[in-house]
Design goal:
Family (chain B): Belongs to the ABC transporter superfamily.
Main location (chain B): membrane
Shape of chain A: globular
Number of strands of chain B: 12
CATH architecture of the largest domain in chain B: 3-Layer(aba) Sandwich
Low-confidence stretches of chain B: none
CATH class of chain A: Mainly Alpha
InterPro entries (chain B): AAA+_ATPase, ABC_Ni/Peptide_Import, ABC_transporter-like_ATP-bd, ABC_transporter-like_CS, Oligopep_ABC_C, P-loop_NTPase
CATH architecture of chain A: Orthogonal Bundle
Shape of chain B: globular
Mean pLDDT of chain A: 89
Strand content of chain B: 15-25%
Number of domains of chain A: 1
Number of helices of chain A: 14
Order of helices and strands of chain B: EEEHEEHEHHHHEHEHEEHHEE
Oligomer: heterodimer
Membrane topology (chain B): Peripheral membrane protein
Helix content of chain A: over 70%
CATH superfamily of the largest domain in chain B: P-loop containing nucleotide triphosphate hydrolases
Largest sheet of chain B: 8 strands, mixed
CATH topology of chain A: MetI-like fold
Number of helices of chain B: 10
Strand order of the largest sheet of chain B: 6-7-8-3-9-10-12-11
Structural class of chain B: alpha/beta
GO molecular function (chain B): ATP binding; ATP hydrolysis activity
Distance between the termini of chain B: 49 Å
Mean pLDDT of chain B: 89
């Protein structure tokens, strides 16, 4: 298992190297560039040239790449030109990454907390009204665009629920420790700060959770339907075990493998959803920075954030693969 | 009083837009305490459905069960789900056909044994583990303490079936139903499992309902045999009498299709013609008529009634096989 983990982490290094090269090329292939973005359409050729030189964009692209790589290895990913001009890309990442983690984590928790029980219930009542209704509902969950749902939540439901729709926290005096606002509030025992940050998370997290919820729901339902037909469930019934024991130990434990895989994949996909959600809710996370970064062609920030997103994706799926061994003993002994 | 008294047990499967299908049709039999009763027949004759109906394991929707299943005087079919749950595993145990798929692949063997002890005998996990090791030992699994922490895929087929038997007998139920317990096993292992079952039911005084298509199993184990065809009992007899003098042409056919060591050289096996699918419904005559060598015109017109032919034997046939005449020694 350790060897497997190490091999996967070494592969990750290769993936990141290749990705950085491709990204470098792709970003520069976009029309426009940081110079036009910063100076606007009417800038004089002289000022454009000066800025191009200052940003090092006048050099051949492979020279730029190797310079970037050399600095990156010592932790310097360059300075932001668009998102927060003047701040280092790493600073922006460290500031915003906890926000997106908090948001995605809550969204995934919502998706799991509702998707698994409802999926189980729908399978148990296959063909009944609850099953039909929730399968239909999950289809809508997948089909409705995140940005549409986000605006509905923001403009229609927020006032009824009394929940905030902008930012990560109101301007209150809160101690910053880790950058995870809810977590910070808990460890410093500033409960009002934690609660305030949590309130800010709810609507964007709900908007972000709809797709993973719908997918987790459907996969759980399908997996449970398969397991319910298995002989060992009949054996469990023949022992007269109580319904909760059969559900937990015999049905769900066997149905979890595909569900866990899905959760891993969805966690990666969340980042794509976060770009839209964070934009709508002015939530200062990685997604919002990506959106602004693309508008203003902020090469250093885009490069770093996308590479980091890739690392998160690979690591999450590695954790998922490792978790198989804990769920299924047949994989452990192989 | 009989321990189990099945009266007119009928199971009809109903599906929307399809003809209802009667899988079990007024089946009646009794099991005395400690007795072993066989339910014999080809695939699709209703043996397994009968056993699932007794256990209350048929799906709630789509299966209509009628008749009575008396267990020590209580009709199990009238019990609530909850009451039935309390009895399954405690009063009635069941062993299934395929020992691999009948065990949960992701739960250690030990837990699969102890959970039934915890449920019905109020044991703590720790106490139940000791008892479970004891049970595994009793069913002939070597090194039981180590096996408790292993998973089904780490055990051989025979071991798995032994474990399932240990689970079914964990609470010492008075009735055990074994649904083709040896079908999925190698022949040598089959013999071991049958010997084990025989020994356990004798030692524990458990009544056994043995469901099988294998008359060899019946010969070695059962006191009394019910032969089922298309959901009805066509012949019922004590074991020795059934083998010595089968009366129903179906029973006769089953017996003559078994290879025998003492048969004359060159004698061919005589299989039963056709398949179970060649049925006519019981209410139009005898379901076996299309495959029956003894069929008369009346067989496809009048449903044969179940008759008591003496000696505790029941028979449902218009034109039964004649009992072999015992040759008189001529002077």
């Amino acid at each position: 298992m350790l060897r497997y983990t190490i091999r996967r982490l070494i592969q990750l290094v290769g993936v990141v190297l290749v990705l950085s090269l491709l990204l470098f090329a792709w970003l520069r292939a976009l029309p426009g560039g940081p110079v036009s973005a910063l100076l606007g359409e009417r800038a004089t050729p002289e000022s454009r040239e000066a800025l191009t030189k200052q940003l090092g964009l006048d050099q051949p692209i492979f020279v730029q790449y190797f310079k970037f790589l050399g600095r990156a290895l010592s932790g310097d990913f360059g300075v932001s030109t668009g998102v927060q001009p003047g701040d280092s890309a790493m600073e922006i990442f460290l500031q915003r990454f906890p926000a997106t983690i908090e948001l995605s984590f809550l969204a995934i928790v919502i998706a799991i907390a509702f998707g698994i029980p409802l999926g189980y219930l729908a399978a148990k009542r296959r063909g009944g009204w609850f099953d039909n209704l929730s399968v239909g509902g999950s289809l809508i969950g997948v089909a409705v665009p995140v940005f549409f749902l986000a605006y509905v939540l923001k403009d229609v439901l927020s006032s009824a629920l009394g929940l905030p729709t902008e930012g990560r926290q109101d301007a209150i005096n809160a101690t910053r420790v880790t950058g995870f606002f809810v977590f910070d509030g808990v460890i410093t025992q500033e409960w009002d700060a934690a609660l305030n940050a949590l309130e800010h998370l709810i609507l964007p997290a709900v908007a972000l959770s709809t797709i993973p919820f719908a997918v987790v729901f459907r996969i759980t339902r399908a997996a449970v339907l398969d397991v319910l037909d298995e002989d060992f469930v009949r054996t469990a019934e023949s022992k007269g075990l109580t319904a909760p024991v059969i559900r937990r130990r015999h049905v769900l434990r066997n149905a979890m493998l595909p569900v866990v895989t899905t959760i891993g994949l969805q966690t990666g996909a969340l980042l794509a959803g976060a770009v839209l959600t964070e934009k709508v809710f002015s939530f200062a996370g990685v997604g919002q920075a990506l959106a602004i970064g693309f508008e203003r062609r902020d090469y250093p920030v885009l490069l770093l954030l996308i590479i980091m997103a890739t690392i998160v994706y690979v690591v999450v799926n590695l954790l998922v693969d490792l978790s198989y061994a804990f769920i299924d003993p047949r994989i452990r002994t192989r | 009083m009989a321990l189990l008294e099945v009266r007119d047990l009928t199971v009809v499967f109903e599906r929307k837009g399809e003809q209802p299908f009667t899988a079990v049709d007024h089946v009646s039999f009794e099991v005395e305490p400690g007795q072993t009763v066989g339910l014999v027949g080809e695939s699709g004759c209703g043996k397994s459905v009968t056993s699932l109906a007794i256990m209350g394991l048929l799906p709630k929707r789509g299966a209509r069960v009628s008749g009575t299943v008396g267990y020590e005087g209580t009709n199990l079919l009238s019990l609530s789900d909850r009451e039935m749950r309390d009895r399954r595993g405690r009063d009635l145990g069941m062993v299934f056909q395929d020992p691999l798929s009948s065990l949960n692949p992701v739960v250690p063997i030990g837990v699969q044994v102890t959970e039934v002890l915890e449920r019905h005998r109020d044991m703590s996990r720790k106490k139940a583990m000791v008892e479970a090791a004891d049970l595994l030992d009793k069913v002939g699994i070597p090194d039981p303490t180590r096996r408790l922490s292993e998973y089904p895929h780490q055990l051989s087929g025979g071991m798995r079936q032994r474990a399932l038997i240990a689970i079914a007998l964990a609470c010492r139920p008075r009735l055990l139903i074994a649904d083709e317990p040896t079908t999925a096993l190698d022949v040598t292992i089959q013999a071991q499992i049958l010997a084990l079952l025989k020994e356990l039911v004798r030692d524990m005084g458990t009544a056994l309902v043995m469901i099988t298509h294998d008359l060899g199993v019946v010969a070695g184990l059962c006191d009394e045999v019910n032969v089922l065809y298309a959901g009805r009992v066509v012949e019922k007899a004590e074991r020795h009498e059934l083998f010595a003098a089968p009366r129903h042409p179906y029973t006769h056919g089953l017996l003559s299709s078994i290879p025998r060591l003492d048969a004359p050289r060159g004698q061919k096996l005589s299989p039963i013609k056709g398949s179970v699918a060649d049925n006519i419904p019981w209410d139009h005559g005898c379901a076996f008529a299309p495959r029956c060598p003894n069929a008369l015109d009346v067989c496809v017109q009048v449903t044969p009634a179940q008759e008591d032919i003496g000696g505790g034997r029941l028979l449902r046939c218009h034109n039964p096989v004649r009992p072999p005449v015992v040759e008189e020694v001529s002077a």
